[in-house]
């Protein structure tokens, strides 16, 4: 079907179940909270190659954080709570503990908990101290600019979703990128989701498998403009570029909401920027239990 001059494929995005957790990072200023969060999220694009998918959910006002300072909520997704715990320990220890003035608190509330400060506390070399406030336990780790405060655990949910997606095609590469940026900005207003790739956009969409032994994924040749004529292409003759937005969320509803606002942004702005078509990536419904039909997400 065509909406506002853009062809919307009658297809669906296929997504997978994941474990999702999160932290709230605070600092003396938003600048430093953002620096710590961005550093922690670095190299958190695809769970296949990076071990976890990590991104900033949103910035928090001082009245929204446990210690009354500016903060940033970071979400982390892995294939299991154990995988998420390992990534959380490494990323907090290397990227948050080290950042000037930082503190780190639980960013997801759930009955199921995983370790947050249980690893980084040992950096205190025996000088760390514990403090309990209500039902929560915190560690105070001495560092060179004072103390690093970190909550002992954070929540984890096992019904999170990874791999919601929109694939956007166009006849103007710059206009396509501008449109994808608008979609990512719109998705940024949806709580409990992240778009883990650089700037929320991925140009190297992948297919499962490869001709090379050991490679679990390879370029999505059907959507590569330079391979038109050499493979069974999905592209029309006027398509010059394709970009994908991948969405992870703590709930299936949050992923659907994010896809809905992203699709609306594309429809609202895309035609004038050379966007010709929107589709979604799936594996015929055989791999992921979450299916998001584009026609049901139209504005």
From TrEMBL:
Residues 146-297 form the Formylmethanofuran: tetrahydromethanopterin formyltransferase Ftr C-terminal domain. Residues 1-143 form the Formylmethanofuran: tetrahydromethanopterin formyltransferase Ftr N-terminal domain. Its main location: cytoplasm. It holds the Pfam family FTR_C. The keyword Transferase applies. It is an enzyme of class 2 (transferase). GO terms for cellular component: cytoplasm. Its EC number is 2.3.1.101. One of its GO terms (biological process) is formaldehyde catabolic process. Pathway: One-carbon metabolism; formaldehyde degradation; formate from formaldehyde (H(4)MPT route): step 4/5. GO terms for molecular function: formylmethanofuran-tetrahydromethanopterin N-formyltransferase activity. It is found in: Cytoplasm. Keywords: Acyltransferase, Cytoplasm, One-carbon metabolism, Transferase. NCBIfam families: one_C_fhcD, PRK02114.1. Homotetramer. Belongs to the FTR family. This is Formylmethanofuran--tetrahydromethanopterin formyltransferase.
């Amino acid at each position: 079907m065509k909406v506002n001059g853009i062809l919307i494929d009658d297809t669906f995005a296929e997504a997978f179940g994941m474990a999702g957790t999160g932290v709230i990072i605070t600092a003396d200023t938003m600048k430093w909270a953002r620096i710590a969060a961005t550093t922690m999220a670095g190299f958190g694009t695809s769970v296949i190659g990076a071990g976890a998918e990590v991104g900033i959910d949103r910035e928090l006002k001082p009245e929204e954080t446990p210690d009354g300072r500016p903060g940033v909520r970071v979400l982390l997704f892995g294939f299991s709570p154990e995988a998420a715990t390992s990534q959380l320990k490494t990323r907090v220890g290397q990227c948050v503990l080290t950042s000037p003035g930082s503190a780190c608190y639980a960013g997801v509330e759930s009955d199921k908990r995983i370790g947050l400060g249980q690893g980084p506390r040992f950096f205190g070399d025996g000088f760390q101290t514990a403090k309990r406030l209500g039902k929560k336990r915190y560690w105070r780790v001495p560092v060179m600019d004072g103390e690093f405060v970190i909550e002992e655990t954070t929540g984890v949910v096992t019904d999170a979703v990874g791999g919601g997606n929109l694939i956007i095609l166009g006849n103007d590469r710059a206009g396509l990128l501008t449109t994808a940026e608008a979609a990512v900005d719109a998705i940024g207003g949806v709580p409990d989701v992240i778009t883990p790739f650089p700037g929320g956009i991925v140009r190297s969409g992948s297919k499962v498998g490869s001709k090379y032994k050991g490679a679990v994924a390879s370029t999505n040749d059907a959507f590569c403009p330079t391979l038109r004529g050499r493979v069974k292409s999905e592209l029309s003759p006027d398509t010059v570029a394709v970009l994908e937005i991948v969405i992870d969320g703590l709930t299936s509803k949050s992923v659907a909401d994010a896809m809905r606002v992203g699709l609306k942004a594309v429809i609202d702005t895309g035609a004038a920027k050379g966007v010709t078509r929107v589709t979604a990536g799936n594996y015929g419904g055989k791999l992921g239990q979450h299916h998001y039909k584009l026609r049901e997400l139209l504005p």
